[in-house]
Amino acid sequence: MKTTVKQSTDKRVNAANTPKRKPESNVNEKLAEAGRALLDATAHATKSTAKEARTRLSKALDSGKSLLGRVEDKAGEGAKLTNKIVHEHPYHAIAIALGVGALIRQLALRRK
To answer: What is the pTM of this model?
Structure first.
C-alpha cells in the first residue's frame, strides 16, 4: 500500500506535535522503578540488614521525589520570571542574545 504525500505530511505533523519526554525524566523514572522493584523483592526478607536497607531506600525515594518537585517548582518560577522580563524589555533581551551569540561564536572560532 502506497503512502500519499498528505499521509506522510500528517504523520510528520503528528510526530512534531507529540510531546517529547525529557531524557532526565526517563532516568528518574527508571531509577524509581528499580527502587520500587527492590522494595517489592525484599518485602518478605526478615533479616535486620534487609529491613534497614528497605527503610533507607524508601526514605531516599521519598526525599528524591520531594527534591525533584522543588527543583521543578524553582525552574517554573525562573521561566515565568524570564518570560516577564523579556516581555517588559524586548530590545534589551535581543541585544543580550546577540552579544552572547557573538561571544560563543568567537570562542568557537578561537578553538579551530
So the answer is: 0.46
